[in-house]
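Long-time lurker. I teach an intro course on protein structure, and each term I like to show students one example going from raw sequence to a predicted 3D structure in token notation. This year I'd like something fresh instead of my usual example. Would anyone be willing to generate the tokens for the chain below so I can use it in lecture? Attribution to the forum is fine with me.
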Amino acid sequence: MRRGVARILTTTLGAALALSVLLPAGAAAIVVGPNLGANPPNANFDCRSRPSVIGPQFFGFPDNCTYLGTSADVGRTTQAPFGGGVVTAVRVRAAAPVGPMQATVVRAIGSTTAGVTCCFHAGESQLFTPRANATSNVRVRLPVAHYIDVGAGIQVVDYIGLTVRANGVAIPGRYPGGGFEGSLAFFPRLTAADNVAGRVDGYGNSLVPLVNAEITPLCGGARARPPAARAVAGSWPDDAALPPPRTRAGARGGRCLGGVSIRDGTVGGSSARVPLDCNLVTRCRGKLTLLPKRGGGKLGSSKFKVEPGARKRVGVRLTKAGRRAARGDGSLTVRVKAKVAGGPDASAKVELRR
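-- Reply from a regular --
Happy to contribute to a lecture. Here you go:
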């Protein structure tokens, strides 16, 4: 059943925006979303039906859709913590049959003059197929934003939605989820092509999508502010073989991420290559410096630009001291510092393989 979008947004997402500033910004990884263990899936329809308070209404189209949880009746909403961060895993509790799905970052923009505008596509994960009648844990990498710009009178908050990409796939959801409007649903799915004006055709319904997400916050991430009206689309390939990004102790305890994550790289001759993950929703720009494991003396430096949410191997020209250190067999352990414009700086001790 289609509802007035303005009323849905002000009573659901609007309430969440008003309360979201209370979330901690420097804590350990945060799990957002409903309690999957306490809410078994029971939706037996796919994207061709619109759930409503009087039951699923069959339309016969399309073959994909996006659901964004907005209800607090079965648990927390899937909004990003204040200051932003990186979604490192999503968990989906699916019934049967299953099929291709992906996590979608949905952006809402609150204004002191215009209310809440929603929704914008701000990123999506790789495709995955969860296990039937089970809870699946899927590693992803999706930078998310959450900040307030007092001068502009806006608040930007990202949410984690679930997109189903084929017909004949039961929506992983609890129906009814307790409460009138448990989610917004978009038919067809939310995509980057919708970001010119945003989508305002969401259906308020009583189904709650059974997806939650693990988010590692940024260290001082409130400084990373994307333009409010420009939702940046990003994607991330399946990197299940890679170790999780390095974190560091936050100012208030727990673990957090710098503007970039620094990974082990390679070295040879007069240069090194250091992979960087951009943890911001805007392009990561800055300067990378290589230092000895102990003591001073720069081994090399380079400027870098990495697209939001992407990974790039940054070439670093070595100094004379760096070329001396690169000689020999085995690997070289160095300290790497990254100054990140518009985001928290990062540092790590990494291994460069010769």
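Some talking points for your students: The longest strand covers residues 101-111. Confidence is low (pLDDT under 50) at residues 1-27, 222-243.
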